[in-house]
Specification:
By secondary structure, the chain is of the alpha+beta class. Helices cover 19% and strands 34% of the residues. The protein has three helices and 16 strands. The strands form three sheets. It has a six-stranded antiparallel β-sheet with strand order 1-12-11-13-9-10. It has a five-stranded antiparallel β-sheet with strand order 2-16-3-14-15, covered by helices on one side. Strands 5-4-8-6-7 form a five-stranded antiparallel β-sheet, with no helix packed on it. The longest helix is centred in the N-terminal third of the chain and has 27 residues.
Length: 239
């Protein structure tokens, strides 16, 4: 009988801690999990008039003009001063910016950096830039850096007690092929962001950007529609 009580108490404690951790994550991060085979995950850069979108509000207006509803949006990688994507950018199978394999300073060039892409059959992938192979099946792609997780392990460059704090966002992929987008609500270091994706079960994850980051998720009452970006990742539904 005692063994039975211990078992149920242990189970209750495990569930309690799991729920507590989930609540804490939701308090500290904007998180959206999506199955790309069931929802439209796209990358955007310019309006139909060839003007750069820049903000989530402009993206919202753009998709609504096509009778679509914006479910979720987040900035999707670093960009140059003229708002052109930093590194590889593919939209609707067209390479609009070539891959960047150079060395340099700044977060983008922290090694290894990587590429988040989605194929024709809605399969998401995150790979190190040096391992990336171009294919006509790649529908969307954005390059950024550094990699947060590789084979489920946190990038060894990151230090748990680092004082390099900032608002940060990133993307990770679960083993079942679903995508997790996350943005911190407060300033954190790289390790904390990588740890979030690791705890959620991602094997690979990529850093997208820092203090400029914004997210739009009405179902969680998170409405950031400003911004001044290059690439924006959006998830839409037909109205």
């Amino acid at each position: 009988m005692l063994r039975k009580y211990i078992y149920f108490f242990s189970l209750f404690l495990l569930l309690f801690l799991s729920c507590k951790e989930k609540i804490q994550e939701e308090n500290n991060f904007v998180i959206y999990q999506v199955d790309p085979k069931k929802q439209d995950v796209k990358m955007y850069w310019k309006k139909s008039q060839n003007e750069i979108l820049k903000s989530i509000n402009n993206l919202k207006n753009e998709v609504e003009s096509r009778n679509e509803q914006l479910i979720f949006a987040m900035n999707g990688g670093m960009f140059e001063a003229d708002h052109t994507p930093k590194g590889l950018y593919i939209e609707n199978f067209k390479i609009l910016k070539p891959i960047d394999t150079l060395q340099g300073s700044g977060n983008f060039y922290l090694q290894p950096n990587g590429i988040f892409y989605i194929t024709r059959n809605h399969q998401p992938k995150i790979t190190e830039t040096k391992k990336y192979r171009q294919s006509p099946d790649i529908q969307y792609a954005t390059q950024s850096g550094p990699m947060l997780l590789m084979d489920g392990k946190i990038n060894p460059l990151f230090q748990k007690d680092s004082k390099n704090l900032n608002i940060r966002n990133g993307v990770g992929i679960l083993e079942n092929g679903e995508i997790i987008f996350a943005m911190s609500k407060k300033e954190i270091n790289f390790y904390t962001l990588a740890q979030l994706f690791q705890k959620m079960g991602c094997k690979s994850a990529l850093y997208l950007d820092g203090y400029v980051s914004r997210a739009y998720l009405p179902e969680k009452n998170w409405f950031q529609t400003d911004g001044d970006f290059g690439v924006i990742i959006g998830i839409t539904a037909h109205q």
